[in-house]
From TrEMBL:
Residues 232-279, 291-350 form the Sushi domain. Disulfide bonds join C169-C181, C176-C194, C188-C203. Keywords: Disulfide bond, Sushi. PANTHER family: ACROSIN-RELATED, HYALIN. InterPro entries: LDL_receptor-like_sf, LDLR_class-A_CS, LDrepeatLR_classA_rpt, Peptidase_S1_PA, Peptidase_S1_PA_chymotrypsin, Peptidase_S1A, Sushi/SCR/CCP_sf, Sushi_SCR_CCP_dom. Residues 363-617 form the Peptidase S1 domain. One of its GO terms (molecular function) is serine-type endopeptidase activity. This is Limulus clotting factor C.
Length: 620
């Protein structure tokens, strides 16, 4: 039997055999395919870009599993959603049935919508030369028919490339601004169905019509402002609908007042308690009447404009009274719907001319007046320097803000003109002459204006029309110690009082017989003197000063008035009331001082009655 040496056997083990069996060849091919297979189907970015050219029709014939697109698809690959040809058997790579992406047999990529099923492939698509942006974007619309095409597993086709400008939507669809079509029912449903959200634009008015309030017409006599609509570009008008929670701010025109809250809010499609404007009556003010207002049983202010239906109760103030004649029958007035009061506020007259005390001490041919004996008498003070005043004349209070005095107290004889009212002040309820003396009941005021008798010319006119009216800046509060004298507007008692044997009283701080000013208020009784008796008794050169607007009163026994008493009033009592009849004007001079043994000339109040009444009505 033949034998084989061991060396030959070893040589075959270390090298390649020149001859293989068929089984060995088959195994070798299989191993090679296993090595190459991953590279054939490896992910390549050049295939994940989805361009518009992939959407156009392809040739029916091409290499197995390929589409004609200017370049071959990888074997076994076709466009999305199109069943192309693959290797024999119509299959693509393992796990890719019909050439679709893994696990997507005839389906769309996750999160994306398919191309319009009723369109032919590539229909209604943009320029095939433009490629998409490789940026993944999820689909939030949930609409399976929004005509979106895929762009591969990690990319998408932008709106500008998806929907052509000439696209027409079907009936029952809404065309988005990006030419996308969505159901009409998706319009203004508070959810963005268009990818550009244009289905929710311009929905303000539509929503308001369902949930909101209609802007009302402005109220009569007023207007409102829609909050957030203050600019001139806001076009909201009455009749337009505004959303819930809108706010209107109301205001009223002059002579109208707001009733209710100033704002109204849109709640449950209605304006909540919108206010209204009502025509109002003017406020009520009076210096002589206390006015108490009420509205619907509640106390209201009379000093402000009031609503129709407001009632005002009227009563005279303290130290005032209703006139004896022409007494109004009403004590209450009502504000009417037309903004007018049904009656005027009547005027009460001061309780005038009442005295609470009488002098009892004789001081140099006169009496020292007690406090309150002549509450109508005031002292007139001239300004010497800043905040320093000196008593120069007297005056008589005829209302809470009017004083009657003599014109010569306020006239500049050098320049023949009135002096400035700001140089004077008035004190009432004062017993002591000095301005700075502290007295409990004294009231003071600066002078606001001075009116002199119409043709007053001072000494050049023989002191004719020697009368002045002073209006106070601060009206006095009338009390028992500050009270006006009575004015006999109808001259009821003048003839009775200005006759022989009747005496009136004058008060003042004038100089005494020694030529010294008194420190406390003095009073003196001075009887009326008939005109002819006066002329015959006074010095001849003084007669020219007894002009037609004057009368005489006084004594020839050394009791008289003097410098400092000028402007004071001569008043007569009738039935417990004192009436003003004259103003201290002129008296003869003797030895450079007053002639206490001569009569005094008084300016007649009745001569200037109408002039005084005019000022009384207009200034009080």
């Amino acid at each position: 039997m033949p034998t084989v040496s061991s060396s030959s056997t070893m040589s075959h083990v270390g090298g390649a055999s020149p001859v293989m069996s068929a089984r060995t060849v088959a195994l070798s091919v299989a191993l090679s395919l296993l090595v190459l297979l991953p590279s054939l189907f490896a992910h390549d970015d050049s295939w994940t870009f989805y361009s518009s050219s992939d959407r156009y029709p392809v040739a029916a014939n091409g290499p197995p599993g390929q589409s004609k697109r200017g370049g071959a698809n990888p074997p076994g690959h076709n466009k999305w959603g199109v069943a192309g040809k693959g290797p024999p058997g119509g299959r693509g790579p393992p796990g890719l049935a019909g050439g679709s992406p893994p696990g997507l047999h005839g389906k769309h990529p996750p999160g994306w919508n398919k191309v319009d099923e009723i369109s032919s492939e590539g229909e209604n698509l943009p320029d095939p030369d433009r490629e998409s942006i490789h940026t993944p974007r999820p689909n939030n619309s949930g609409n399976d028919n929004d005509n979106r095409g895929p762009a591969g597993p990690d990319g998408y086709v932008p709106d500008s490339n998806r929907f052509p400008q000439n696209r027409q939507c079907r009936d029952g669809e809404f065309r988005c601004r990006n030419n996308e079509c969505v159901p009409q029912s998706a319009r203004c449903d508070n959810k963005a169905d268009c990818r550009d959200s244009s289905d929710e634009e311009l929905c303000f008015a539509n929503r308001n019509q369902e949930n909101g309030c209609v802007l009302p017409e402005p109220p009569e006599g007023g207007h409102y402002q829609l909050r957030g609509c203050e600019s001139r570009h806001c076009t909201k008008r009455p009749g337009d609908t505004v959303p819930l929670n809108s706010i209107l701010t109301y205001s009223c025109k002059d002579n109208y007042v707001l009733s209710g809250n100033t704002i109204s809010v849109c709640v449950n499609n209605e304006w909540y308690e919108p206010p209204s404007c009502h025509k109002v009556c003017p406020p009520l003010n009076s210096t002589t009447v206390d006015i108490t207002c009420s509205y619907q049983g509640e106390t209201a202010s009379c000093s402000e404009r009031v609503l129709p239906g407001t009632r005002a109760a009227l009563a005279c103030k303290s130290s005032y009274k209703l006139p004896l004649t022409n007494d109004p029958a009403y004590r209450e007035i009502t504000c009417l719907e037309d903004g007018l009061w049904d009656q005027r506020v009547f005027r009460c007259l001061p309780e005038c001319g009442t005295s609470i005390a009488h002098g009892n001490t004789l001081v140099v041919n006169g009496f020292q007046a007690k406090v309150g004996a002549f509450p109508w008498h005031v002292g007139i003070y001239g300004k010497k320097r800043m905040n320093q005043y000196e008593q120069i004349c007297g005056g008589t209070l005829i209302s809470n803000n009017l004083v009657v005095s003599a014109a010569h107290c306020f006239y500049d004889e050098v320049y023949n003109k009135p002096k400035d009212a700001s140089d004077y002040a008035v004190a009432a309820g004062k017993h002591y002459r000095d301005w700075d003396t502290k007295e409990e009941y004294t009231q003071k005021s600066m002078v606001d204006s001075i009116r002199l008798g119409g043709r007053y010319m001072g000494a050049r006119g023989n002191f004719a029309e020697d009368i002045a009216l002073l209006k106070l800046k601060t009206p006095f509060e009338l009390t028992t110690l500050v009270r006006p004298v009575c004015m006999d507007w109808d001259n009821l008692y003048e003839r009775e009082q200005l006759q022989t044997g009747q005496a009136g009283k004058v008060v003042g701080w004038g100089k005494d017989i020694k030529g010294e000013s008194t420190t406390s208020l003095q009073e003196i009784a001075m009887p009326f003197v008939p005109y002819q008796q006066c002329l015959s008794a006074v010095p001849f050169d003084f007669r020219g000063f007894i002009t037609s607007d004057k009368f005489c009163a006084g004594h020839l026994n050394g009791s008289s008035v003097c410098e400092g008493d000028s402007g004071g009033g001569l008043s007569f009592e009738k039935n417990g009331l004192w009436y003003l009849r004259g103003i201290v004007s002129v008296s003869p001079v003797k030895g450079g001082s007053c002639d206490y043994n001569s009569y005094v000339g008084f300016t007649s109040i009745s001569h200037f009655r109408d002039w005084i009444r005019e000022a009384y009505v207009s200034d009080t």
